[in-house]
Design brief:
- By secondary structure, the chain is of the alpha/beta class.
- The protein is built from six helices and nine strands, in the order E-H-E-E-H-E-E-E-E-E-E-H-H-H-H.
- The protein has a nine-stranded parallel β-sheet, with no helix packed on it.
- The N terminus is likely disordered.
Length: about 270
């Protein structure tokens, strides 16, 4: 059959999954296209988002993962008013179109495994966003406008080139999951304490810039150990103390405490420190 033939479905379109024929040749009446709510054109060879998708006025979920896209077609994005999920993982995206800010109802944005370097300031306009997936890209800075996403609950930024997290992250008080593993972050802002984090992933970051060195003030070190020992011994007076309960599970430590006759409490407890 010719690719120029009109696509005529037998029933109203609500879900169009894994479309195989080139979308630019579809001449379906606009009223029929407007009924499509879910579109999956992932795992194809698309190099650009067909403009015809802009006619899908009722589209709620758009999957365009694993293609060869180098940018998100702004002429399409600014017409997807009702879209709540956009999945463009595994493409060759070098950036995010500023028109992303026009997708007012967008809740989940997946852009993992691309070549994105910059997040546009217009991201702040996606006020309904709850999940933002930007892992495995080339992002070096996070815009302060990210703090405007007050409904954001999950933020994935693993495997990027980040060296810091802006203080504005603290404004994302609904944030529950943050993944910044495999970056170059050396410290976290104090404002993060305002977030509602239940999961924080930060492995493979140089949080400790230098290896610890041996103190040159030996007397001060021993004094600190003695203070710690006194605190530990004081906790033994409380029979419900967590430290006391854990110690009772360690026969070797109990034996050490019983045999130690020295009046210096630090010498008895140095092995515990």
């Amino acid at each position: 059959e010719s690719q120029e033939e009109v696509f005529q479905p037998q029933e109203p379109l609500e879900n169009l999954a894994r479309l195989q024929e080139p979308l630019q040749h579809i001449k379906q009446p606009q009223e029929a296209l407007s009924e499509i709510e879910s579109l999956n054109i992932g795992n194809n060879e698309l190099e650009e988002i067909p403009c015809v998708i802009g006619c899908f006025s009722e589209l709620k979920t758009l999957h365009i993962f694993n293609n060869k896209l180098t940018d998100l077609n702004g002429r399409v994005l600014d017409r997807l008013f009702n879209c709540t999920l956009l999945n463009a993982n595994g493409n060759r995206l070098r950036g995010i179109s500023k028109e992303i800010g026009l997708m007012k109802n967008l809740r989940i944005l997946c852009l993992n495994n691309n070549k994105i370097k910059v997040i546009p300031k217009d991201i702040k306009l996606c006020s309904s966003l709850t999940e933002l997936h930007l892992g495995n890209n080339n992002i070096t800075d996070l815009p302060v406008e990210l703090g405007k996403l007050t409904m954001l609950k999950k933020l994935y930024l693993f495997k990027n080139d980040l060296t810091y997290i802006p203080d504005e992250i603290g404004s994302c008080e609904s944030l529950e999951v943050l993944d910044v593993s495999c970056n170059y972050i050396t410290m976290f802002p104090r404002s993060m304490s305002r977030c509602s984090l239940t999961e924080l992933y930060y492995d493979e970051n140089p949080l400790l810039e230098k290896l610890p060195v041996r103190s040159q003030h030996t007397n001060d070190v021993f004094y600190l150990k003695e203070l710690c020992a006194r605190v530990i011994l004081e906790s033994f007076k409380d029979r419900y103390s967590p430290l006391r309960r854990e110690t009772l599970k360690r026969p070797d430590i109990l034996l050490l405490l019983k045999k130690e006759k020295s009046t210096d409490c630090d010498s008895a407890l140095i092995p515990l420190l």
